Amino acid sequence: MGLVATAGILLCAFSLPLVSIALIKPLESQYPPLPIAKVAGMAASAVVVLGGGYSAKSPDEGGQASLSPESMKRAVMGARLGAAASIPLLFTGGRSADPTETESEADAAKAFWLSLGIDGGRIILETKSRDTADNASFVVEKIGQRQIILVTSAWHMPRSMLAFERAGMKAIAAPTAYRAGPLNHDIRDFLPAASALETSSLALHEYLGLLWYRLRL
Question: What is the CATH number of the domain that holds 20?
Fold first, then answer.
């Protein structure tokens, strides 16, 4: 009974915006935003965008693969940075675990970028990776150990930078898709919300991932 009660208390706590923001903000604060205006003079070989999820068969895309909102936010930031710096775009993201799927997340990103009018000759795809460590190692296979602009969600940036640095890459962080917005300073900060529980879950996953990467990589 005590375990059930404890689990219920933790679930309720992690569902509070006050708690979720306290958990995610330290992750999002480690690297500042990269102003678009500053990238033109940077000595970077490519903008590397990490996948953040996709639908392998999206009905609104005629059954083709499409990016999740999180991944699309990253892809948009990558496109803006790539245009400002006039350097190639590299999207890294493999296929789902379903062996029947033929399109990867990177394929979905390419289709999205092409729909924005981006020249296909500027797009590089990495389609084998399943996690952040894979992203780093397979990007090295694609372009070598070069300086890049790295785009991912702000909460995911600390682990991503660690993975790319351990793989021998010099990465300039360009975080996006922030979750730690300002508190409402009212009763809503103390009321459970599904979005807050999702944010808390992401934060806890990242803290565990950082610990694992520091021990393993």
Answer: 3.40.50.620
Read off the pTM.
0.92
Are 37 and 76 within 8 A, CB to CB? no
Domain ranges, residue 119: 2-177+185-216
- The candidate with the shortest Cα–Cα distance to 171, out of 21, 45, 66, is 45
For 155-183, the pLDDT digits (tens) are 999 999 999 999 999 999 999 999 997 77
Compute the distance between CA of residue 41 and CA of residue 54 in angstroms, rounded to an integer: 33
Contact 74/86 with Cβ under 8 angstroms?
Answer: no
- Check pLDDT > 80 for residue 49: yes
> What does DSSP say about strands 46-50 and 89-92: parallel, antiparallel, or unpaired?
parallel
**CA 146 from centre of chain:** 20
Structure tokens at 176: 């996006």
- When divided into structural domains, the chain yields a total of 1
